[in-house]
Amino acid sequence: MKEMKEKIGIVDTLEERKPYITRKQEKGQEIPLACDNNSLAGAISQRACVYSGARVVLNPVTDAVHLVHGPIGCAGYTWDIRGAKSSGIETNRTSFSTDMKELDVVFGGEKKLSSAIDELVGLYHPPVVFVYSTCIVGIIGDDLESVCKTASQKHNIPVIPVKSEGFKGNKSDGYKAACDALKRLIKRPSEEDIKKKGPRVPETIKPKINILGDFNVAGDVWLVKPLFEQMGIEVIVSLTGDSTTKAISRAAEADLNLVQCSGSMTYLAKWMQAEYGIPYLNASFFGIEDISLALRRTADYFGSEKMKERAEQILEAEINRIMPEISRVRERVKGKKAAIYMGGPAKALTLIKGFDELGMEVVIIGTQTGKKEDYEQISYSVRDGTVIVDDANPLELAELLIRQKADLMVAGVKERFIAYKLGIAFCDFNHDRVVEFEGFDGFVNFAREVDASISSPVWKAVRQRELIPEAMESEKKSGRIKKVAVEERISRENCAKECKGMLLKPEFLHQKSEAAVESQV
Fold first, then answer.
1. Positions of the chain with pLDDT under 70
2. According to its UniProt entry, what is the function of this protein (predicted)?
């Protein structure tokens, strides 16, 4: 009984949430973690809705018109949601909405939607229009399928309904809705091309691949594609980073799919395998180990000795080029503790390896959409005692960061201010970053950002917090205090020199009224 309390009593949270937070156990023990369920009511989940999941997958299709059928707030919330870069047309950077009002809810919005499609096609002449359904559309029952079919026939382009009513599931269901929309764009290759596909391609034929689940955030895919091209491989399309309608239509010509974001694209990869006979491999393009593995596994699949030799040459040259800088950063950050909280498990897993390459220890790791097999793999990759959490909320994350004494948090923009308020360094690994993290140069960028975040002199001028063991013990005995007891450590050093001449007054930064509120984590 005592052992069970230790496993589930890691933070002060709702009783129903305790099974979703655990520690890495000794080898051979199954982690007792609940996951892959809908968020609990009242738990303030960090997850996004179905509609948001669909938007993050489809929005990087650069030449498409993305029309949100619903209130203006849904379009505003997801405008330019991916931060994906484009090498050509950028129609996707403009957000469109039918801006449904009260009368549209009462009388239906189909006519308004039809008029909006006509207007946008006339203005932009896009090769495809994606029409997203929102919660209100699902409630009033507008027939998107019928409106889109009529518009498609009228304008002679694909007008594709994305069935993404926010209330009907979670972000993972949005990924599936997006993949169902992409299926309609992928054209079937000729029977002759299908017969040519196989595990081994002759040296005289240039093999083709697709990269699935890379969204070209900050230009990531531009650092990855050249590596495969140097190996003699044609990258048809990255789904969906910097992709066009024409490139997506050719996706079925590929000999192999490389799936980076397993949560968003495994569904599509399995469909392409069943429909067109295209196998897939899971891959990651972050960190030295995972990039090396991706290139080697791809070369092994095609069975070309020349390709294998070229892959080794690329790896040797690139690793030798970046290692001096990686080694310099490693000396500065080794031994520091990192917390990881990602939307999908693939990013979380690859970050574990990346931090290991920098000599850092992962003390917290969590995802929003991980499944049991994902957490088992995560458990194999982290050290004993590491906290593993599914669908965490801000209060849980804040307490975990304090308890585990994290020096750095790597997550998305929603978690940024949790870390900052606790005086903990932060690195954005999600949609809003502006620096590439994939490929060899991307890993150097990541290492530098981690170093800059942890080593910033600003942390000498902000509040640091720790749990007070004595207070925690008295809390258990008395049963009267329910809040987590914390101690604030305020550095009063004069760090003006390191902060480039800006003298910060501790009395001004740490007013008692502010501290009293924020200390109650």
1. 1-9, 25-31, 191-204, 463-521
2. This protein may play a role in the biosynthesis of the prosthetic group of nitrogenase (FeMo cofactor).
pLDDT of residue 465: 59
Predicted local distance difference test score (pLDDT) of residue 328? 96
Q: Measured between alpha carbons, how far is 431 from 397 in angstroms, rounded to an integer?
A: 20
Between CA 136 and CA 175 the distance in angstroms is 20
CA distance 24 to 49: 29
Cβ–Cβ under 8 Å, residues 261 and 208: no
User: Which two three-digit tokens encode residue 444?
Assistant: 């150097």
Backbone phi, psi, residue 365, to 5°: -145, 135
Local structure of 237: helix, strand or coil: strand
This prediction's pTM: 0.84
Which pair of structure tokens corresponds to residue 344?
A: 């999908």
Q: Where are the alpha helices (DSSP H) in 46-141?
A: 50-58, 72-77, 102-107, 110-124, 135-140
pLDDT value of residue 75:
84
Distance CA 477, CA 33 (A): 28
| Paired tokens of 379 | 């458990």
- C-alpha 239/C-alpha 214 separation (Å) is 6
Among candidate residues 263, 439, 410, the one with its CA nearest the CA of residue 351: 410
Residue 346 zone, left/alpha/beta (φ > 0; ψ -120 to 50; rest): alpha
Q: Count how many residues are written for the chain.
A: 521
Q: Which two tokens stand for residue 160?
A: 């594709």
Helix (H, G, I), strand (E, B) or coil at 160: strand
**CA–CA dist 195, 213 (Å, integer):** 26
Q: What is the pLDDT of residue 492?
A: 43
Q: Which residues contact 341 (CB under 8 A, 6 or more apart)?
A: 46, 364, 365, 366, 367, 389, 392, 397, 409, 410, 411, 412, 415
What secondary structure letter does DSSP report for 84?
Answer: B
Mention every residue, 6+ apart, whose C-beta is less than 8 A from residue 426.
Answer: 408, 409, 410, 411, 415, 416, 419, 420, 453
Tens of pLDDT, residues 358-410: 999 999 999 988 888 888 888 888 988 899 999 888 899 999 999 999 999 99
- Cβ count within 10 A of residue 182: 24
**Positive or negative CA dihedral for 104, 109, 115, 121?**
positive
Domains of the chain: 24-36+324-462 (3.40.50.1980), 50-185 (3.40.50.1980), 191-321 (3.40.50.1980)
Long-range (24+ apart) CB contacts under 8 A made by 309-315 are 310/230, 310/231, 310/232, 311/231, 314/227, 314/230, 314/231, 315/291
